[in-house]
Amino acid sequence: MLAIKKIYMDYETAPVGVSHMPQFAWELVSDKKNVKQKSYELQIAKDADFTDLIYNSGKTESEESAHVYVQGTLENAKRYFVRVKAADGEEETLWSDTASFVTALAGANGEWEEGAPAWKAPFVSAETDDSYKNASKGTYVRGNFEIKKEVKEAYAFTTALGLYQFYLNGRKVGEDEMTPGWTSYRRHLLYQTYDVTEYLQKGINGAGAMLAPGWYKGVMGLTKARNNYGDQTAFTMEIVVRYTDGTTESICTDTSWTGCDSPVVFAEIYDGETYDANLEIPDWSKAETPSGSWKPVQLVFFDTEVMRAQYAAKVHVMDRIPAKRIFKTPAGDTVVDFAQNMAGRIEVTASGKPGDVIELHCFEVLDKDGNVYLDNLRAAKATMKYTFAKEGTVTWHPTFTYMGFQYALIVSYPGEPKAENFTACTLHSDMASTGKLECSNPLLNQLHHNFLWGLKSNFLDVPTDCPQRDERLGWTGDAQIFCRTATYLMNTYTFYKKWLRDLEADQTPEGGVPHVVPNIEEGRTDGNWLLSQGPHSAAAWADAAIINPWTMYLMYGDKDILKRQYNSMKGWIDFMRAHAVDYIWNYKLQFGDWVALDAEEGSYFGATPNDLTCTAYYAYSTGLFVKMAKALGKDDVAAEYDELYSKIVKKFQDTFFDAEGNMTAQTQTAHIVALYFQLTPEKYIEKTVEGLKKLLAKENGHLVTGFVGTPYFCHALSQNHALKDAYDLLLKEDFPSWLYQVKKGATTIWEHWDGLKDDGSMWSADMNSFNHYAYGAIGEWMYRAMAGIEADPEQPGFKHAVLYPRIGGNLKYTEGNYHSIYGNVGVKWEVQGTQILLTVQIPVNTTAQIRLDQAKAVVKSDGLTFTKAADYMSAEAGSGTYHIVFEQ
After folding, report:
1. Which of 653, 739, 852, 870 has a CA that sits 20 to 30 A from residue 363's CA?
2. pLDDT for 109
3. Contacts for 180-183 with beta carbons within 8 Å, 24 or more apart?
4. Catalytic residue positions, numbered
5. Alpha helices in 138-284 (DSSP H)
6. Contact by Cβ (8 Å): 829, 873
7. Which of 152, 165, 147, 154 is nearest to 206 (CA)?
8. What average pLDDT does the segment 540-554 reach?
9. Which burial class, exposed, middle or buried, applies to 456 when counting CB atoms under 10 A from its CB (0-12, 13-18, 19+)?
């Protein structure tokens, strides 16, 4: 039976706060094979009964079930309802379940193309004198308004300078945390949209917000500066109320609002939160006049032209993890263990009396003696503290901070702490899970767990490097390296779309890309060695401007992201072109093969020359830009940059290969990028592979690569007839290897291969994160090669997939699944003697090429016709589930 399982609007199932007519997609399911959509009918209405349509496609002959664009007039602050039905030529679906989306505020001219909103409400602040400029305290702001008529629907639009939580009539609105997130505030600020129909009451209503410094004015960045974007927290709100009589009213923050200090006496991203219950004001956000020292608010100017609506991927509490144990360390400290490294906060329950204090210090690991280890947090205090105001039992958690931790040191707690009193609450952007992978090797399964939790710990609104120490920055290199792995694991489309807007906003006028996005260090080159050497445009880091949009296009098939990022991408290529010398690219500070093990003693910079790594990325990014320009129909641009690409490749080959075809840099990373970026002269590919294998053998089969070489190592081998070597590398269990960390008990990915050494000692505390996802980029190889789930650049977004599982590693089975916009793409292979049992699942309305690795003969084809290729047999297949058996 043909049916529609799910509807997507801009890659989300229920976006709230869209600022343009979204694109539509729907997921079809069928119990038959080779099913393709022949037609569809899509309706959009103002009501759930679909009697008031704003769009009706009628029966439309089309195979497209994704990236469907429609025309229709939208209203401000309105919920729209969507349904679709489709046919394959033989049967037609019923109408789908109804989906919905909510609009944000239109632009100043009433336009809906993601422009600045026509924002009416001023920003109001309780911080009304200079003493607040360097303050880390929290504040309240509040105001009343009257609802005189029957409400049909109401939507609130809110944001802040600083962090905020929004309340109506004593209730927190929504489940969002750490709003409005971290953006390049002066150029890009997000506002949130909430359906508040059920929160309002006839008569007088109370509205308010709790505010804290957050990223906006708190201590942040490598220079530990405060007031990076401003020195005054402020809140703005507009509620659009639509009454049953057809009239509409806007309710805004204004000078009638008042403000005062909140019980949050200290809140900083790095240092944690202190809460004094003695300062609580009961019912502060209700309509009744509350107690407390309320004063008139001050209006704060902010350029609303940079504001945009956020429709999804907001930060939520995503997991609740009970404490596993409480124990005493050899030093006598009492410690809570959650048995999982993570990012978030701890919810604690305790019974106390006035003046009692709960105080916890969060941290990642124990030292070699089993004691509390705080040194790798550097200056971050990562502390949460609560003071009781009265006798009783409380359950409390911090609100305006987060920590990276597995453990918590109990500094103070009334009574005897028990494990059931502590729950860890993870925080990260809300993204649907899309990937699963399991195999017969439990160490590899734990590795998958570890890089998944690396994502969950570091995708808190911004793709950060680490969640625990006094850094937590959006390093572009880490984000680029891990991007493909992340897109397999979760639906990262909206998350990266938001971050790439900040990347573009923070590019220099010349096109240079900062090392971190948002670029909190902008304009600061003194006082920090790294920034003084060159605050932007490092190869492999800045190339996030190209590689992340390309990855999104590849995985989602969406050209919108290419259109949106086109100027940013072109700007970065042009920056490299402007600063290249005879097609060799290098510029100021380069990180090169960062933290590679072939670095000189005491250095973080790997042995591979910067000229080589920079020029390799110059070529690679230019080649990708050519492909994206072609996809956008910009053929003249594609031709111009294709010529540039050819010249860079030639220069690379002439410079970094000698007359005998040997690479001039005898490092693993040099060979890896030459192979994976397809920069090796055709006649020297085999020699380069052999060179890489010799360098691997020289290290007894171990990698010595850093940030540049590691992500592509297994690909460079498996794509060049060295699959066994790739598996051998992946399966190494001693230092340095991915599984060394696993065997050491890691639950996330480490920053250094030996962050925790064999003897229990640590890497230098100044840079030793145990939750640093970059090396988790191996997940991309596990999905693309082990499971064999590969996108086709010619038909991206898994409209046509390449299913090519690479059998090896002495694995008995591997099963991988990726939930694409069309549905689940699944591959499972099992070894039974000399035969391989292969099961593949191809979504409705898509096709795939199935490749059988090292197949000698096909025993069972399940109706498919396989033909011999170079190293495999292949067949084209339509949708459905296939069971294939072949001899290897």
Report:
1. 739
2. 62
3. 180/310, 181/310, 181/314, 181/315, 181/461, 181/462, 181/498, 182/214, 182/215, 182/461, 182/462, 182/474, 182/518, 183/498, 183/501, 183/502, 183/518
4. 471, 751
5. 214-217
6. no
7. 147
8. 98
9. buried
